[in-house]
Write a structure and sequence with these properties.
heterodimer, A: alpha+beta, twelve-stranded mixed β-sheet, two-stranded antiparallel ribbon, 14 strands, B: alpha/beta, Rossmann fold, six-stranded mixed β-sheet, globular
Chain lengths: 399, 225
């Protein structure tokens, strides 16, 4: 046990008194290897996470209720909302009713999704009210106002301009055609969530719908629920189920549709790229440590010649490798968190499914740090064993 | 076994392979070294001096024959046992000092002692030794900041730290000037005479033979005188 401190002592002296530029280069490479290992996965995770947030914030909420199979509406929605609202962990609820109508602007008409909402309640579940790029959001009492998504309004920069109103503006009139009857609405605002699917929708107030379709009173086609982030979503889901409500309850994940396959493809690519990144990091680290140890071949021979046991020599290089890895991980984390993440928040990748920023869960982050640590320890261990098993005199005399 | 001898080597042979050529570096050499001897090994380059010293100092093992050190047949030891033997009973001084570049002079000296004692004790012993060798001003210098003679003295101190019974030195003065060489040889003489340490040393310099109590000459891997 007396010798226990010796490997730490040797490793510390190597770090302290080794060549500074070699040490800096080694640490730089370890840092780059770690950043490489977290950057690509965090980018893909960021895309997936961004898309998921878009779905939750603009379309479904955390949970949502749809009519029972074979029915068009959820009946007694006010009663249902009060029941659900009483469940612990439910933060806010918004009912939406799909308006079975067409929109017409000048000579262009189309079957976009038109939803009737209570703007005050929907504001608390969806973030569309914060995504207005022109005009303003709906007011509860608006009966002749409509807000439309950017993909409906159109414009030269718009992805689906060909199927849009081709540059409709706030204040322009659009007609809502329901059961052959037409009602004129003024465009009050245009929103841009940066999520194409969401931006192909229009919203009117519940009050407006009730006026043109009185049968829709106290009915809804979807009820979106926002839960407290601290609460257990699974428990809330079960509690709603236990209410035996007039509808089917789903989690947001079940609504992802097209996004589900996109996310799953990204996930597969992410796994492949992560594997490649691990391989590249492993090879880089092994080369770095191997070269370091091979350069110390003579010193290792001398240590053996003066009676230092091989396990102490091996352990000192394992510690050295672990220290390199730890510094690389810390430096990589600092660069990632203080430079890369803020940079991508300020300049996100703009995709049709939303803005992508770098995102990596702490557990994924720790797994990658652990991978670097283990790879480094193995990378230190193997060459140290090889060198300590080589002929001592060959090592000392450089043969 | 006569306990008068601290080392008794019997018929040791060591061969090297260079491509298809087999080189007999030492050929059936037997040598007895008495306790307290100051033995100098001489011979031309390639005569097998260093190979013999490596075998006697347990840095290498012979292909055949036996080496007894303090009556222990070391050829039967595994590497672990040989390492312990080197640590506890033998000191080795290389021609080119073989100091660890990242360690200061005192750290180099205390290193073998750290295998047996606390850092504090090892440091105290190392300082005492370095003081004896006139290196007290250089304890915190790195090897690169020392002269050749100083580096060799540090190597001697390192070889002495665990109080070995035998010191092996492979041309320890080869890279030193006359004054530094004399210093090193005087230290060996002192260790041999005052501390009763057996010294086995290789030399090329005829004038150094004056320090020896006994001599052997090697030629083509055999003892010729």
């Amino acid at each position: 046990m007396r010798q226990f401190y010796l490997p730490f002592y040797l490793a510390w002296q190597y770090i302290r008194r080794g060549r500074k530029w070699t040490l800096l280069l080694t640490l730089f490479l370890m840092t780059v290897a770690f950043i490489n290992l977290v950057f690509v996965p965090s980018l893909f995770s960021g895309i997936i996470d961004g898309a998921n947030k878009q779905i939750i914030n603009t379309m479904t909420g955390d949970l949502y209720i749809t009519p029972k199979d074979g029915r068009d509406f959820i009946n007694n929605k006010d009663q249902l909302i009060s029941q659900v609202q009483a469940i612990e962990g439910v933060e806010s609820i918004s009912a939406k009713t799909l308006v079975p109508a067409r929109l017409k602007y000048n000579n262009i008409s189309g079957n976009w999704q038109i939803l009737a909402i209570n703007p005050n309640k929907d504001k608390k579940v969806s973030n569309i009210s914060q995504k207005m790029i022109s005009g303003s959001y709906l007011n509860e009492l608006d009966t002749d106002k409509i807000i439309i998504g950017r993909q409906i309004a159109g414009g030269k920069e718009v992805e689906e301009d060909a199927f849009s109103f081709k540059d409709a503006r706030v204040g322009d009139k659009v007609s809502l055609i329901l059961d052959g009857k037409s009602k004129e609405f003024t465009i009050k605002g245009i929103f841009d969530t940066n999520f194409v699917e969401s931006d192909k929708r229009a919203f009117i107030t519940e009050k407006a719908l009730n006026e043109i379709m009185p049968s829709s009173i106290n009915k809804a086609t979807t009820i979106n629920i926002k839960t407290d982030p601290e609460s257990n979503q699974g428990n809330i889901f079960e509690s709603i189920k236990d209410l035996n409500i007039d509808g089917n309850i789903f989690t947001w994940q079940e609504s992802t549709g097209l996004m589900k396959s996109v996310s799953s493809s990204f996930l597969s690519i992410n796994i492949l790229l992560s594997f490649t990144s691990v391989l590249i990091a492993a090879v880089t680290i092994i080369i770095i440590i191997y070269v370091t140890i091979i350069n110390k071949r003579k010193e290792i021979g001398i240590l053996r010649a003066i009676g230092i046991k091989p396990y102490i020599i091996i352990f000192s290089y394992v510690i050295l490798s672990a220290v390199y890895a730890a510094i690389g991980i810390i430096a990589g984390t600092v660069i990632f968190m203080t430079i890369l993440v803020p940079y991508f928040i300020a300049h996100p990748f703009s995709l049709p499914i939303g803005d992508a920023v770098l995102f990596l869960s702490w557990s994924d982050f720790l797994i990658r740090a652990e991978i670097i640590m283990w790879v480094s320890v193995i990378a230190g261990f193997i060459p140290a064993v090889i060198v300590t098993r080589a002929k001592m005199l060959d090592a000392i005399l450089g043969r | 076994m006569n306990d008068h001898y601290i080392i008794k080597a019997e018929s040791i042979t060591k061969t090297y392979h260079s491509g298809r050529t087999i080189i007999k570096a030492i050929d059936n050499v037997s040598i007895n070294i008495a306790k307290g001897d100051f033995l100098m090994i001489t011979g031309r380059n390639g005569s097998g001096k260093s190979t013999l010293l490596h075998q006697l100092a347990l840095l290498d093992s012979p292909d055949s024959g036996a080496i007894h050190i303090e009556e222990k047949n070391t050829t039967k030891l595994h590497e672990k046992g040989r390492m312990e033997f080197r640590l506890l009973r033998l000191g080795y001084i290389f021609q080119e000092y073989a100091l660890i570049a990242e360690l200061t002079a005192i750290e180099n000296v205390m290193l073998p002692a750290m295998m047996l004692e606390s850092i504090k004790k090892a440091k105290r012993k190392a300082f005492e030794l370095m003081e004896k060798l006139g290196l007290e001003e250089k304890v915190n210098r790195l090897p690169s900041e020392l002269s050749g003679g100083e580096q060799q003295k540090v190597a001697i101190a390192r070889a002495l730290i665990n109080r070995p019974k035998i010191i092996f030195a492979d041309e320890p003065t080869a890279n030193l000037d006359t004054i530094a060489s004399k210093d090193v040889l005087d230290i060996f003489k002192y260790l041999n005479q005052k501390e009763s340490i057996t010294i086995v040393m290789i030399t090329h310099e005829p004038e150094e033979l004056a320090y020896a109590k006994s001599k052997v000459q090697l030629s083509d891997g055999r003892i010729v005188s």
